[in-house]
Structures are given as structure tokens and as C-alpha cells.
TrEMBL record, chain A:
It is found in: Cell membrane. Pfam families: BPD_transp_2. CDD domains: TM_PBP1_LivH_like. This is Branched-chain amino acid ABC transporter permease. It is a multi-pass membrane protein. The keyword Transmembrane helix applies. InterPro entries: ABC_transp_permease (IPR001851), BCAA_transport_permease (IPR052157). It comes from the Bacteria. Keywords: Amino-acid transport, Cell membrane, Membrane, Transmembrane, Transmembrane helix, Transport. Belongs to the binding-protein-dependent transport system permease family. LivHM subfamily. The chain crosses the membrane at residues 6-32, 44-60, 66-88, 100-120, 140-164, 193-215, 227-254, 261-282. It comes from Albidovulum marisflavi. The keyword Electron transport does not apply.
TrEMBL record, chain B:
One of its GO terms (molecular function) is ATP binding. InterPro entries: AAA+_ATPase, ABC_transporter-like_ATP-bd, ABC_transporter-like_CS, BCAA_Transport_ATP-bd_LivF, P-loop_NTPase. Residues 2-231 form the ABC transporter domain. Belongs to the ABC transporter superfamily. It comes from the Bacteria. Pfam families: ABC_tran. This is ABC transporter ATP-binding protein. The keyword Transport applies. Keywords: Amino-acid transport, ATP-binding, Nucleotide-binding, Transport. Transmembrane segments: none annotated.
Length: 293, 231
């Protein structure tokens, strides 16, 4: 294969990484932006999405597409419910103190990981893709499923943006973000908003995992890498900025695709980490973030 | 309309309000005066449920609202204009209004009524509220509270740092509300502003109401102003 098509392939692989990363990172960013909670357990919500998708693929009979569609709906709801429960029983009691919530979510990380090890076991297991056709390009054939992942992620991100910017629920979320005491004085049930936002964040991570699990197997330790990459993306894009998060996910995903293909996956991680360091030094609020007040 | 009886309240272990008793009547403006730190803002927050009260009762139209979760208090018709305005500064004027309307599910008619009180806001609906002038921000804070069609309106130093023309506009608004039967509690530090709108004046010191008097009996040289406000 000559250089041009090779680069195209690398970029397409990078788009798949970007798409999944953007979903996970937007979840992390929403939780930080609205609740000011740094959720260290975010990667475990991702892992739970993948692991629960495997269970759904075992339980739902019929063709893989049916089981996959079920997983796409059920797993984010399941993980969202766990997240809401964690918010109401733990984070709320800590009054959302920044240090306390970091420690608590580290605890949650280990609880969820050990729970997955107990109920799911130490094996990596595949989930069948809903369909397996290949799209034949002039230079190479490419997985139709991977293209569908990019499309699905774009649609969900558009939905999240519309929810935040155009809907009544989004208005309530933004008002709570800016001033939770005054929000209460105007009838906004802040506890419910927080539980909902934490559920939405966890649900987005789970959705990303369901999308990736036909490509990459489910494993109880799979949450670490998406957590680190989500943090990298959120820091580069600017904490709490949806647009910045998506652009940074594209940047990191595409450069990961290109560098991994032409050089080595390790180099791609080094470059991403270096980019974070540079951003932190020269533009601590991130590329699109506002300076902290 | 709104009666506070024997309220104790504060922040954590620090008690601010002590046995506070106060009554706001329908169609009346009750001004609250007192030195900085007397507990005026804390009293309004206690009414809103934003500061927990450890003793006493707050009766609104026969219902004790003291144990309600904070977000349910405004739904019973208490509009709040906080000290320093506390707009949702990154939201537009229209969005701030919308939040006010959502509180008690009020619609287009209420929105039109409120905006006709403040035509300058109608011209700036799409503007981000944090970029408004100080006076316009205060108008918006009042408009947002009026979107509840409140039975009781709490105003915490609304004229602080404003030009005379804006102060006059706010006074006219408060006076106009009286005829619609709203009970207004107005925290205000300026004697002339108080005397021009108040029906009664409550003087606070040390977290409690020391004295409540009819405004008709007060002159700018009344001893209460010297004693409780220091002017
Ligand atoms: N958030 C807070 N936490 C602790 N103490 C507070 C807080 N807000 C106000 N106070 C204290 O409560 C007292 C009354 O304050 P405040 O109600 O704001 O007085 P005023 O409005 O009459 O100037 C003051 O001593 C103030 O320091
Ligand atoms: Mg005050």
C-alpha cells in the first residue's frame, strides 16, 4: 500500500478512537463542569458498560444485532442507575467537597473493579458485532461497524449538545452549574440535577464501552486507559467545555491513529502526555476553557 | 401573610438569628434596617430555606414552610432578589427570565407582564446577563423574581450601588406591587428610600428584631435610625 491510502487508514482508525474517547470524555467533562466533581471512577463506569454488554449478549437470544441493540439501551441505563445511586448515597453526604469526592471516587473505583472481578471474572471476553459487512474502498476494505461507531458517536454528541444548549433540562443544568444556591431559590431540585448529571456522565462512558466492545474485548481492568485518556482530553480541551472536549478528543484520537500506525503505540501515548504537560504550562485553562474565576 | 416566630438559625455552629419574630402583611412594604452583620440577609435566606433554622416557625398563608426543602419554598410563592443580584451571569436575559417562569410554571402572559414593567430588558433578551449594566442587572433580578407571581417578595438591598434614576425606578416598582396585594420585605440601608416606600420598619440588631414601628411616625431624625443604623 502506498503512503496516501496508508495515511487514510491510520486516520480512519484514529476517528474510531476519537469517537469513543469523545463520548467518555464528555461524560467526565459534564460531571466536572456542572458538579465540580473529579470522578476518578469514570473509567470503571466505562468498564461496567463493556462487562454488562457481555452479559446482555449472553442473555438475549437471537441474532447478535438484537442483543447488541438491547445492550446499547440497557447498559447505559444500568450504569447510569449505579452512578445516580453512588451520587445520592456517597457524594451528596460528602457535600461535594472536592478532596473528599476524589477520595470517595477512588474507593468507588476499587469497589466496582472488585465487583466486576467477582461477578464477571478475570477473563477478557468478546461481544459479537451487530453486523460484519466491509466497505470496499478503492485501496482497501474497511469495517462497516467501525464506520457505524463514528456515526453513532457523532449523533449522540449532537444529542448531548442539543440537550444542554436547547432544552429546558439543559437550562436547569446550566443554572445549577453557575449558582446552585440561587438555583434552589428558583425551585430547582439541585439534588436531582446532580444525580441526573452523574448518571448521564456514567451512561455516556458506558455507551462508549458498548460501542467499542465488539472491537476490543471486555475485561475488568479495561477502565484505566479510558480514564487517563479522558483526563488528557478534558485537560487539553478545557474543563467543562463541551466543544473543547470534542475537539481535543479528535486531536488525541487522530494523532494516536497516525503515530501508532507509522511509529509505535507507546510513542502515541508519550506524545499525548507531552501535549497535556505543554497545555498545563502554557494554557492551564485548556484550549477552549475559560480561566478559573 | 408571612409570619416568622422565634427563629434560631445560623451557619454550622455559628448562630446568627436569635428568637427572631417578624410579620409581613398583604399589600404592605415592610422595610428591614440594621447595621452590617445584623443578620438581615441571613433572615431572608432562612425564609428561603437556604439557611437551616433550628427553632421557630415560618407560616405562609397558614402553612409552616420552615421544614420544606429549599427548592419547594419558591413554589409556594416566595420571590427572592438576593443581595448582589446573583444572576445566572453566563445565561442570557431570556434564559434568566425562563428560570423564573419555570419555578411556578408561569407562561407567556406573565412573561409579557413582567417585561412590560422593564422595557429595557425586552430590548436585551439575547444579551448575556453578566454583560448588562448594574442597574439593568438589578432590573433582571427583580424581573426574575416577579416571574413567580409571588405572594411574598424578598428584596435584599436592591438599590446598593445604583444611580438615583435606577433607585427611583425600583421604588416605583415596589410601590406598584403593593396594590396587587404582594407582601414585600425590603432590606434597605438608605433612610430616604425607606421613608418613601415603607408602611412599617423593622430594626434588626444582633440577629433579632429589636423594634418594629409604623413608617408614618418616623422622620429622618428619628432616634431609631441613629440607634440601629448609625446614620
Ligand atoms: N456563609 C456564611 N458563613 C458563615 N457566617 C456567615 C455567612 N454569611 C454571613 N455570615 C455571618 O452572619 C452574620 C450576619 O450576616 P448577614 O446576614 O449577611 O448580615 P447583614 O445582611 O445584616 O449585613 C455576620 O456575622 C456574618 O459574618
Ligand atoms: Mg446583607
Amino acid at each position: 500500500m502506498s503512503f496516501g491510502p496508508f495515511l487514510l487508514l491510520a486516520l480512519m482508525e484514529g476517528m474510531v478512537t476519537s469517537a469513543v474517547l469523545a463520548l467518555a470524555a464528555v461524560g467526565l467533562s459534564l460531571v466536572f463542569g456542572i458538579m465540580r466533581v473529579v470522578n476518578v471512577a469514570h473509567g470503571e463506569f466505562f468498564m461496567l458498560g463493556a462487562v454488562s454488554a457481555w452479559f446482555v449478549s449472553q442473555w438475549v437470544p437471537g441474532p447478535p444485532a438484537v442483543a447488541f441493540a438491547a445492550a446499547l439501551v440497557l447498559c447505559p441505563l444500568f450504569v447510569g442507575a449505579i452512578a445516580a445511586l453512588a451520587d445520592m448515597t456517597v457524594l451528596k453526604r460528602l457535600n461535594y467537597e472536592p478532596e473528599a469526592t476524589i477520595v470517595a471516587t477512588i474507593g468507588l473505583l476499587y469497589i466496582l473493579q472488585q465487583a466486576a472481578l467477582s461477578f464477571y471474572g478475570p477473563d477478557a471476553r468478546p461481544v459479537p458485532a451487530p453486523f460484519s459487512f466491509r466497505v470496499q474502498l478503492p485501496w482497501f476494505g474497511y469495517s462497516g461497524y467501525k464506520m457505524a461507531v463514528v456515526l453513532a458517536s457523532a449523533l449522540v454528541l449532537l444529542g448531548v449538545w442539543r440537550l444542554l444548549a436547547k432544552s429546558r433540562v439543559g437550562l436547569i443544568m446550566r443554572a445549577t452549574q453557575y449558582d446552585r444556591e440561587t438555583a434552589r431559590a428558583f425551585g430547582i431540585n439541585v439534588d436531582r440535577v446532580y444525580a441526573g448529571v452523574f448518571a448521564l456522565g456514567g451512561g455516556l462512558a458506558a455507551l462508549a464501552a458498548v460501542l467499542i466492545v465488539p472491537i476490543q474485548q471486555a475485561h475488568y481492568l479495561m477502565g484505566t486507559e479510558p480514564l487517563l485518556l479522558s483526563f488528557i482530553v478534558v485537560i487539553i480541551g478545557g474543563l467543562g467545555s463541551l466543544r473543547g472536549t470534542v475537539i481535543a478528543a479528535l486531536l488525541i484520537g487522530l494523532s494516536d491513529g497516525v503515530i501508532s500506525t507509522f511509529f509505535a503505540p507507546t510513542l502515541a501515548k508519550i506524545v499525548a502526555t507531552l501535549a497535556v504537560a505543554l497545555v498545563l504550562v502554557f494554557r492551564p485553562q485548556g484550549l477552549f476553557g475559560r480561566r478559573a474565576l | 401573610m408571612l409570619t416568622l416566630t422565634g427563629i434560631d438559625a445560623g451557619y454550622g455552629s455559628v448562630q446568627v438569628l436569635r428568637r427572631l419574630t417578624l410579620e409581613a402583611r398583604t399589600g404592605e412594604v415592610l422595610c428591614v434596617m440594621g447595621r452590617n452583620g445584623a443578620g438581615k440577609s441571613t433572615m431572608l435566606k432562612a425564609i428561603m430555606g437556604l439557611v437551616p433554622a433550628s427553632a421557630g416557625s415560618i407560616m405562609l398563608d397558614g402553612l409552616d414552610i420552615i421544614r420544606l426543602p429549599a427548592h419547594e419554598v419558591p413554589r409556594h410563592g416566595v420571590g427572592y432578589v438576593p443581595q448582589g443580584r446573583r444572576l445566572f451571569a453566563e445565561l442570557t436575559v431570556a434564559e434568566n427570565i425562563e428560570i423564573g417562569l419555570m419555578t411556578r410554571r408561569r407562561g407567556q402572559r406573565t412573561r409579557d407582564d413582567v417585561l412590560s414593567l422593564f422595557p429595557r430588558l425586552r430590548e436585551r433578551l439575547k444579551q448575556v446577563s453578566g454583560t448588562l449594566s448594574g442597574g439593568e442587572q438589578q432590573m433582571l433580578a427583580i424581573a426574575r423574581a416577579l416571574c413567580l407571581e409571588p405572594k411574598v417578595l424578598l428584596l435584599d438591598e436592591p438599590t446598593e450601588g445604583l444611580q438615583p434614576s435606577m433607585i427611583a425606578l425600583i421604588r416605583d416598582t415596589v410601590v406598584a406591587l403593593k396594590s396587587t396585594g404582594v407582601a414585600t420585605i425590603l432590606v434597605e440601608q438608605r433612610v430616604d428610600a425607606v421613608l418613601s416606600v415603607a408602611d412599617r420598619v423593622a430594626f434588626m440588631t444582633g440577629g433579632t428584631v429589636a423594634e418594629t414601628v409604623e413608617a408614618a411616625g418616623l422622620t429622618p431624625t428619628a432616634p431609631q435610625f441613629a440607634a440601629y443604623v448609625g446614620v
